[in-house]
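User: Structure with glutathione, tokens only please.
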Amino acid sequence: MLRLHTFKDCLPGTPDPSGFVVKLMTVLRLAGVGHERIEVDNPAAGPKGKVPFIDDGGLLLGDTVLILEHLKKTRGVDLDRHLSPLQKAQSHALQRMLEERLYWACVYSRWMEPANAKIEDEIFFGDIPWPIRGFICRQAHKTVETALHHHGLGRHNREEIYAFGVSDIEAVALVLGDQDFLFGNEPSVADATAFGMLINIVGPDIPSPLKNAVVGSPTLMAYVQRMQVLFDGAAPRLEMEAA
Ligand SMILES: N[C@@H](CCC(=O)N[C@@H](CS)C(=O)NCC(=O)O)C(=O)O
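Assistant:
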């Protein structure tokens, strides 16, 4: 059975602290692909040093895009079957916006805001004894700060970063409009991606201007709730939480 490696289910309000993990869990659930969830402490265990990653009969694969390609080839999983070529291109553009910029604005809100960073420390490192915990937390903060700097977003000031993130959120709301899902009546991979990112912004008790932007949009709140119902309703087949 497919083994899905994720973070620990440790952040109330979201199925996983990673939007990428929630994206993949959503696709697996909607497509009815049985899997076992394995919770890891350290994403470095994965082939790309990140979560999610899968182990499919010994084949280790990282990155949601590559994993979805693999699922399409091996199991015929294709949530985008109903999309036209133009919609597929639009879905591609939307997903890269969500994953390559809004995601990083969310990372900033979690790790670079001192009050929120304390929540992250507790969630991820709360079971590490002092004084090692202090060292690990400082290292983690430094790593995230460096990653944000190399990405480029971290070179902007707080207001600019949130303005960029909020503009991404507003773009999703506009594309959605009065549809149930981003491309009509049926959910697609873009919805799994949007849900993963938005539930991680709005679900946990972590304040930020990004959260205010989602909460302030009835369209997006209804959408996230709609996706949440689908996610909860599509109970994973043979899924087991790792002890
Ligand atoms: N492009 C990757 C992104 C995955 C990703 O960024 N995962 C983050 C968690 S949200 C991670 O594992 N970060 C740990 C690290 O960079 O060390 C995908 O689509 O799976």
